[in-house]
Amino acid sequence: MLVSRKAAGTLFVGGALGMTLGSLLYPAMLGVQKVSSAPERVVATPATGPLTEADRDFVVEVRSAGLWEYPVGQKASKKGTTKAVRDAGKQLVDGDASLDAACRDVADQLGITLPNQPSPQQQSFETRLNAESGKQFDTDLATTVRATNGQFLTTIASVRTTTRNSLVRALADQANDTVLDHITAMEKTGLVDFAQALAQETTSPGLPAQSLTPPPAVAGQPQVVLTPPANSTVSPSPTAG
């Protein structure tokens, strides 16, 4: 899910929206560089309400967060050394799969092109956790996921209180519930280093923009789907068709 605030992406609005927009911007999160300069600017006017740069950025941010957190959750559910860590991993998988389904549905309705990979920095989170084991893995997982979700809450609150688009508003509601669930799961492990988490949330990563930008999806490449577990306990999203 965040220290820097912007990233580049692509949005195409067509069909009922009556227009096609060129290259636009990706959103803000730990691991994603946000570069839009006018978040309140309306980029499309679908039937569900005006769509701003901030709205569009948020939809991509939700997608990017799940793309790195979901596989990390899968690994945690198997190699966590405590039941609390393994259970937390399962919650990540379950919640991210449901939220991603809603995100893809909203993006499809609003004509937003989503990435198929997280940013290079977010990929580095996953790579680092893949290489760790034992208590080090457990602690790093809990702290990193707690930090990224902690900062994401501020973005969700901002979008939820300012958007005029009903689809984005519903997605923000589900994202809020999912993020709070993930934060609680990490804290229940008893392994979160809160000082480190706060530092991650408030300190610039000092990386070039390309390291903080999810690569655009390759033309013709199938869209990555985060498959929900067979025993999913998360209710279907109200935004998913």
Would you write up a description of this structure?
The chain has six helices and five strands. The chain is mainly α. A three-stranded antiparallel sheet has the order 2-1-5. Helix 1 packs parallel to helix 3 and helix 1 runs parallel beside helix 5. The radius of gyration is 17 Å and the shape is globular. The chain starts with 6 loop residues before the first strand and ends in a 39-residue tail after the last helix.
What are the defining features of this structure?
241 residues, mainly alpha, 3-stranded antiparallel β-sheet, two-stranded antiparallel sheet, disordered N terminus
Helix content: 40-55%
Instruction: Assign an overall shape.
Output: globular
How many β-strands, per DSSP? Answer: 5
**From N to C, what is the helix and strand string?**
EEEEHHEHHHH
Total DSSP helices = 6
Give the structural class: mainly alpha
Biggest pleated-sheet summary = 3 strands, antiparallel
- Strand order of the biggest β-sheet: 2-1-5
Average pLDDT level: 84
**Span from first to last CA?**
24 Å
Q: How big is the Rg?
A: 17 Å
Write the layout of secondary structure elements.
Blueprint: E1 7-11, E2 23-26, E3 42-44, E4 51-52, H1 53-79, H2 83-110, E5 112-113, H3 120-131, H4 134-162, H5 166-188, H6 194-202
Antiparallel strand pairs: 1-2, 1-5, 3-4
Helix pairs in contact: 1-2, 1-3, 1-4, 1-5, 2-5, 3-4, 4-5, 4-6
Concise synopsis of the structure shown:
This protein is mainly alpha-helical and 241 residues long. It contains six helices and five strands, in the order ββββααβαααα.
